[in-house]
């Protein structure tokens, strides 16, 4: 069984997927990591599925499996939960298909999980040089969300929403992720903290999407989902309505 399942959700990423997978392969082979890689195509309208299938033999060290998902429920969270259902590794990592994530942190993620953390996440706000690359509107939003999290949950979280992370697969499955969109990321973090789990943050930059890539995150359509999981966490903490 692989120690780490790398989940890469894909949708219309034919132009950037191969480069992203090659970057992951370089890290995995250099560090002799025991992994499987799930390329999860979310019913792309371009050649993403064909590109994903072509990578299976190109990168044998990644032990790639390609999953073709019908878009019954739209959103990043739905794709993540679909991938989790097929993953076999002790740990899982979420990697963006467009090359934004500093995948060189993957070995450190695994080391931190081995020492007893349930979630290890990249934070864009621990070093000034990493935060400088984030657009001002997102920095403002993050500041407000972090302050609300501290006020309602009593936790000072350095980066509440970034998806690039690794986690104990069985532990997270036992908490029952339910979010359909990008709010699955704060849901995972908040549920882990509320049940006494350990979350650790490692500094790293979020890069711009690779050439031909596109950002799938749109703040106006995601902000209500983020508010919802924070409210659910606050209600759970206060004992009013259980969340899990």
The global form is globular
**Distance from first to last alpha carbon:** 29 Å
Structural class: alpha/beta
**Quantity of strands, as a count:** 7
Architecture overview:
This protein is α/β, with parallel strands linked by helices. The protein has 9 helices and 7 strands; from the N terminus they run E-H-E-H-E-H-E-H-E-H-H-E-H-H-E-H. It has a 7-stranded mixed β-sheet, sandwiched between helices. Helix 6 packs parallel to helix 9 and helix 8 runs parallel beside helix 9. The mean pLDDT is 93.
Short description:
43% of the residues lie in helices and 15% in strands. With 244 residues, it is an alpha/beta fold.
List keywords for this structure.
244 residues, alpha/beta, seven-stranded mixed β-sheet, 9 helices, 7 strands, 15% strand, globular
Secondary-structure map:
Layout: E1 4-10, H1 17-30, E2 35-41, H2 48-58, E3 64-68, H3 76-86, E4 91-94, H4 106-114, E5 119-123, H5 128-131, H6 136-153, E6 165-168, H7 169-175, H8 184-194, E7 199-203, H9 219-238
Parallel strand pairs: 1-2, 1-4, 2-3, 5-7
Antiparallel strand pairs: 4-6, 5-6
